[in-house]
Amino acid sequence: MARCARALFGTEVQEIAADEKGEIRYPRVTRGIRLRDGRGFPVEVPCHPDPRVETVRWAICEAGLVQSIGRGRGVNRTTANPLQIDIVTNVVLPIEVDEVTTWEQIQPGMAQIMRARGAVPLGYPDMATAYPDLFPTADAARMTLTREAKNPEQTPIGEDPSDPSTENPEQNPISYISIGVCSGFSRQRYRRRGARGPAGVLLYDPARIEPKAWLTERLGEVVLLASEGEEIEARKSDDLPAPAHPAFVEHRIRDVDFAPQAPARAELIRCAFGTIDTAWPAPTIAPAWWQDLFEERAAHREFDGGYLRREAERLAWEECLAEWRRQHAGQGHAICAALL
Q1: Strands ordered across the beta sheet of 96-97
Q2: What residue spans define the domains of the chain?
Q3: Is 53 exposed, middle or buried (0-12, 13-18, 19+ CB in 10 A)?
Q4: Average pLDDT of the chain to the nearest whole number
Q5: Taking the C-alpha atoms of 70, 75, 80 and 86 in order, what is their torsion angle to the nearest 10 degrees?
Q6: How far is CA 11 from CA 2, 53, 250, in A?
Q7: Which of 4, 153, 173, 211 has the fewest Cβ atoms nearer than 10 Å?
Q8: Is the four-CA dihedral 122, 124, 126, 132 of positive or negative sign?
Q9: Residue 188 contacts by C-beta under 8 Å, 6 or more apart in sequence?
Q10: Are 335 and 270 in contact (CB under 8 A)?
């Protein structure tokens, strides 16, 4: 810079001595980024002490950035197609900006990283299997996404961190991913070969991802299932079974994919309202798993099936009960039908 200034102005200019590493570092001064609302954001920037050298430096750095901004031809845009410009640097320019953020604040969360890769399975074990570099375990996926959903620290450029709509402490991780992060993605229900429990759901970008190939590569052999909407309509069209004998309790049971099963009949031998027989076996999966299952199925019903939240939770509860029955089928314990 000093040599350029010396040649341009034809005079000697002030030099800056190199440091112990042989590097030349300009002194730093505080300047302000002007926001459109009138506020200023202080930033430390380099500035040469010689005004002639500083003029050359400014023409190369700041003036070059201003020229780059002009190449977007914002003057040719209208409110129908505005031009958004992201200046990813801390250089202070003679313009007004809409927002100022930091590098740490715009780092993507795990949900946004999965979205950028084009596919997000809505199940913590499958997330950990598909993305071992992001989640070492299913519990790690659940805790990380719960934290992101209730208290998001990352704010994408273009979103106002002070806007209350960008934070919803009541939303669960599944709705956070489905609505807040992966809106516009397609959905594909699937089941892993030999897997128990409800069907999985994959959110994916159809322009980049082929669901069957992606799932098979990362999770193993899978079977693709019809959408929930199609199965709900099929469920409504089914005929109800004839009433059972009064001495028996009869259940119209379906599996978690809503495939109709033969009616189950069990003699009502005793009731214990509000309690469960101590002889009934304890759940084979931790309570947190059942809570995650309930929240996941309720979110699917609400956001994919279009149900009101109360109805979505009721249907999710029925699915949890169906899964409980399947896990404890054939163990020989009688339990009051009213409790299930």
Answers
A1: 40-46, 28-35, 96-97
A2: 2-97, 110-225, 240-339
A3: buried
A4: 76
A5: 20
A6: 10, 11, 101
A7: 153
A8: positive
A9: 201, 202, 204, 211, 224
A10: no
List all residues 6 or more positions away from 318 whose beta carbon is below 8 Å from its beta carbon. none
How much of the chain is helix, strand and coil, in % rounded to 5? 40, 15, 50
Strand partners, 192: 222
* pLDDT in the model for residue 243: 44
Which residues, in sequence order, are CB contacts of 112 under 8 Å at separation 6+?
154, 156, 181
Whether 250 has a pLDDT exceeding 80, the answer reads no
Q: What count of residues does the chain have? A: 340
Rounded CA gap, 115 and 93, in Å? 33
For residues 276-290, give the mean pLDDT.
55
DSSP state of 29: E
- Tokens 């900006």 sit on residue: 97
Q: How far is Cα 249 from Cα 260, in angstroms, rounded to an integer?
A: 18
Angle between helices 138-150 and 287-299 (to 10 degrees): 50
Q: Which of 319, 170, 208, 169 is nearest to 259 (CA)?
A: 319
State percent of the chain over pLDDT 70: 70
